[in-house]
Amino acid sequence: MKRGGRLRVMKFLAHLLLMSLLGIKRQEQMHLSDLEMQVAQLCVENTTLLKGLTDISHKFNKAVVDNHVLRSDVEALLLSSILSNSMVS
């Protein structure tokens, strides 16, 4: 093969390699964009879940306090009933 022919083949191969690398770079960029979009969606979902957890936690804590109050009320009523019954007897 003549020197000019080899040079053309080398240029052609270099061009194919460049096109391949550009294609890979484009695919990587698309993948990176997809990942960035997923991160943004997950951040929104995380914020929503954290807000829900906070709301449920507050409701639970209120229910615990209400439960203690009700138990105290029941105990007071029982004592009152026992005292009333002992006075009647």
Question: How does this structure look, described?
Answer:
The chain is mainly α and 89 residues long. The chain is 97% helix and 0% strand. The chain has one helix at residues 3-88. The longest helix has 86 residues, at 3-88.
Provide the β-strand percentage band: under 5%
Helix content: over 70%
Secondary-structure element series: H
Number of helices: 1
Largest sheet: none
- Class from secondary-structure proportions: mainly alpha
**Anisotropy-based shape:** rod-shaped
Straight-line distance between termini: 126 Å
**DSSP strand count:** 0
Signal peptide: 1-27
Keywords: DNA-binding, Nucleus, Signal, Transcription, Transcription regulation
Topology, please?
Layout (H helix, E strand, L loop, with lengths): L2 H86 L1
Quick summary:
The chain is mainly alpha-helical and 89 residues long. 97% of the residues lie in helices and 0% in strands. It starts with a helix and ends with a helix.
Provide tags for this entry.
89 residues; mainly alpha; 1 helix; 0% strand; transcription regulation; transcription; signal
